[in-house]
Amino acid sequence: MHSEELKEFLIKIERLQSIMITVATRNSNIYEEEHYAELYQEVELSIEVMQENGLVISNPNPFSSLTKLYEYCLSHLNGSAWRHQRIRYIYEIYLNLFGQIEEFLSRQQLEILPSNDISTFTISQIEETQKRISQLQAIMIEVATKKARVQDEEELYVQIYQDTNLKINHLKLLNLSIKNPNIFRSLWHLQAYFYTEVDLETSASRKQYVLELYANVVSILKKVLQKYRLKATSQNKLFQESKLYFTKEQPTPSYNFEFTSQIEDIKALNNSPTQGVSSNTDTHNVQFGFIDKLPEKKFSPIFITDSDISSTSAETITDVLILTALQKEQDAVLRYLDSPRKVQTSSQTFYRAALKTQKIDTVYQLVILCLPSMGNLQAAVITQRAITQFNPSHIILAGIAGGVQKQSSRYLGDIIVGEQIVYYELGKQTQHEQGGSEIKRRYEVYRPGKVLLEAAKSLPIQNWVMSVKTSRPDGTTGRVIPQVHFGVVASGEKVITDPSLINELQSDWSKLVGIEMEGAGVALAAYESNFLPGFFLVKGMCDWADGSKNDAWQEYAADAAAAFVMELLKSAPFESKLRLEPLNSQKPLQSVEKVNKRSLGQIKMIICQRLVHDWQELADYFDIPPHQRAVFNRGREPQGVWEWLEQRNKLSELKTALEVIGRNDLIKELNQ
């Protein structure tokens, strides 16, 4: 491609970044950014053309729609400095692609210069390069110490940055070992970096960071200038001495690509020894420079495609996704399962389990996932991602809820099942002429899946009440046997302490049985999913939604709900995705029938899922450099290894490598 085409390509990426930042920082509505999809496709096409012309690049942006970007930001970049986290993340997506294209442009602009012609090396080059660096540092320090605003300095900074980059690449073309340590093409990126690094909270620390950023390069340039001024020497000798200086002192800037220090939940996972990441391997601080082949930063897609989840392996099939909002609710569910297996990644922790049913040929594969926090918005986002990841046939939301009293028929510890889930937060506030105001509510109503609802209504009470493992807080007083109440469950965004709201909801919904905070979000995600899983809500009443909170019943209520769910599933109300041979029904997990031959995508997914703890050994076998491992997306390092092999046509060597590291079980998957 010609220089002008490459420049236009970079402009399109900058436009994409601008739209992404605007949406991610909530300054624009997602659905108003129609230009994004068109730009994304144009960038994708340009990358394909460049690949055909021999450039080793790929599209690092996994977000083909702004909705996916926004959902990712809500669930992953939501710390106290969320705005800066999101800005920084978006700049980092295209970081290495910019470096590759800009270096290629520099080479085109300087291609008239022979790489071994030292006549183009002049002392004025060194002086101009040093001058430009000093100007850059001055602007960066002004911003770092809050003496200047980013918007006031951005245009000048970008001009000087590009000029400095061109001069450094000119020296590099002369075979001088110089690298540009400054990866901040924009002051907005620099500012976001400052706000998301714990060690850069003060003006003094930020100023020191800027000074150290160019310290090695400036030191070398000063030595060359000093040598020239103190001792007259020939151009050739000066060049050779300069080359020696650059060889001896390589710039070693440090940049934390993952910026996990500001994201507390991810930070905790990073410090955990159970992530499959070697604790003695530093994969954060990497050297960055405009070298011949920049390590390409890979951002694996957040959303798994349909083809990725079509494997027939029991490890990848999910019949039922059980969601809980609290850890105590998840613990209750796990008590009713035989040997649930914990699966932990950098972004989530969940459990897998197999549940035998009354039918000899039916075993359900379950995934149990606890939501990171309460509330319908978070529930909708996480459920959508879980649906795409696991493709369950049914989703069950289990746990505890506030009950609505009805004289002599409802007691704490009873079960509520939602026949309708009503989201009540929407409404219109109107002013009365006489003064005061009124909120006219606009309800959104969701209905559960018919299969599980009908099965629940016909489930004999003795099938589950005797299996409840937790003792009732009231001892022997009161009604001992819990009942099941089918009706309307109201779902909102806050804990209810005002009885007047209950009265208002009851006046509109006479069959109101309970109130909770996640059902509408989970139901919405299920309704809007292309996979159309059935949705079902089961919760135990732990208090009355009137402000008289009673924590004493929470454990029992959660346990009763879990017991009901398990007995409901054991009745085998729907067909499992696994088809078992009757003779082998005692070993259901080994009795999966083979269907179509697996695609490469299916094999990749299965192998990568099982390499979470061994990917380092595989990387060692193929001698993947540390700086390239550092750009693998945290929690998806096996996918990074696979793609590294795929780009270098080395997948054919994977079978031998797996044998060497002792993973013969995965060789069987390759042979499928």
Short description:
By secondary structure, the protein is of the alpha/beta class.
- How many E strands? 14
What is the CATH superfamily of the largest domain? Nucleoside phosphorylase domain
Cα end-to-end separation: 42 Å
Q: In which order are the strands of the major sheet placed? A: 7-13-12-8-14
| Gross morphology | elongated
Provide the residue-averaged pLDDT.
78
CA-atom Rg in angstroms: 30 Å
What is the percentage of strand-forming residues?
5-15%
Largest sheet: 5 strands, mixed, barrel
- The assigned CATH architecture of the largest domain is 3-Layer(aba) Sandwich
CATH topology category name of the largest domain: Rossmann fold
* Poorly predicted tracts of residues: 257-313, 581-597
Task: Characterise the protein shown here.
The protein is elongated. The protein is an alpha/beta fold and 672 residues long. It folds into four domains: 1-112; 117-252; 320-430 and 438-571, Nucleoside phosphorylase domain (Rossmann fold); 600-670. Helix 5 packs across helix 7 (150-173), helix 6 runs antiparallel to helix 9 (203-213) and helix 10 runs antiparallel to helix 11. It contains 25 helices and 14 strands.
Key terms:
14 strands, Rossmann fold, 25 helices, elongated, alpha/beta, 672 residues, 4 domains, two-stranded antiparallel sheet
What order do the helices and strands come in, and which of them pair?
Layout lengths: L2 H22 L9 H19 L13 H11 L5 H12 L1 H15 L13 H22 L5 H24 L13 H9 L7 H11 L1 H16 L4 H14 L6 E2 L7 H7 L14 E2 L33 E5 L2 H8 L6 E4 L4 E8 L6 E8 L5 H15 L3 E10 L11 E9 L3 E5 L5 E5 L2 E3 L3 H8 L4 H4 L18 E8 L7 H10 L3 E5 L2 H10 L5 E11 L9 H17 L29 H11 L4 H7 L4 H4 L7 H11 L6 H7 L3 H7 L2
Parallel strand pairs: 3-6, 3-7, 7-14, 8-12, 12-13
Antiparallel strand pairs: 1-2, 4-5, 5-6, 7-13, 8-11, 8-14, 9-10
